[in-house]
Amino acid sequence: GPGSRYEIITPAAVAAVRGTQFRVASDQAHAIMRSEITQGTVSVDNKYRQSDVRKGFGLLAKKGEKLAPPRKLLPATNLQHNQSVYNLSPYYFDWPEINNGIVYQAHLSSHNEVRSYQLGKPELTVDTLNDGEYTLSVRGVDEMGLQGLSASFTFQVLNHPGPPALASEPENPIIRTGQQTLSWPSVPNVQRYNIQLADNPDFKPLLIEETVTGNTFTPPRTLAPGQHFWRVASRNAHAETGHFSQPAAFRLYPGLQAPATVHATAKSLFIDVSWANANGAQNYELQLSKDKQFEDIVKIINTQSTHSRLAKPVDYGTYYVRTRASNALGEHGPYSPVQDIELASPDVKSGWLFSGIALLLLLL
After folding, report:
1. Please, are residues 42 and 22 in contact by the beta-carbon 8 Å criterion?
2. CA distance 209 to 244
3. What contacts 222, CB < 8 A, 6 or more positions away?
4. 276: closest CA among 256, 287, 288, 260?
5. Strand, coil or helix: what is 179?
6. Which long-range contacts (CB under 8 A, 24 or more apart) does 45-53 make?
7. What is the largest CA-CA distance in the chain?
8. pLDDT tens digit sequence for 9-57
9. Ordered alpha helix ranges (H), the chain
10. Neighbours of 168 (CB within 10 A)
11. pTM over 0.70
């Protein structure tokens, strides 16, 4: 009734309670009692002193010592900015730091479970939670071990399916065909997946994004040579998509082919050479040789283009040209067909001109 009285007796002190809300903790090992009052007044006394502790204050009592004056409790923080519904793990919560707070005491409760945490920072990460409603309560704890006023909020967990674990074995493998089939471990109770593929780890922009049934995917078109990244997210029966997996990567470098044709044309001071493009080529090596076996090479040029201009050699006669492609890994493809080119001396050309003029005069 209204005049009822409730006493808590510990080795350090006696707390008498009437119409109030409070917390009392007794440390038997150190003969300490802590009282924290959140509503009303609690009377605490031992053989040395009696003290009335009001709302918002706490008191530390030690056996054999006088009661310390009541101490103002740390204020409540604020949790209301955290999400009201969580779909994806891990579950992250934070709150404004409380002045003078050394640690934080947090309690996470559901209808059938309570988890307690002691934290050195104003944040909490929980790896796994089942679907349901939860309440998180947080209090600051000062240097005397007194817990401050509580802040709490209620949220729901409606989990979306987790992602599969992708693995590249070996890591970042080299693929030799553009029609690479990607696969990943199945996720329980998941039949459909969203897959993204890009040529950069930020996935901006995307090359391909599709939803597939099953745990394999073959790109619908041949991919360009180079580095590629891909990731997968699970999709449940309600068309809810979870977060994406960690990216996996592969390098696509199909086998290089030889340039199909080479054309060489002699000019007055140069030799112009052009050749067909080789798929996947990043660079080309052009060789000019005095012999068809390319044992007496006079010039080698590396270029990213499919044409080049060479200065004419000093010596005249028959020369041979060929080229081959290389990719970003420094791998070389086979050589192109050999093209020969005749470099005539000026004396030969003059003799041809003189013979032509003499023949014309005879005809006249």
Report:
1. yes
2. 12
3. 178, 179
4. 260
5. coil
6. 45/13, 45/14, 45/16, 46/12, 46/13, 46/14
7. 149
8. 555 555 555 556 888 888 777 788 888 888 888 888 877 778 888 899 9
9. 346-363
10. 12
11. no
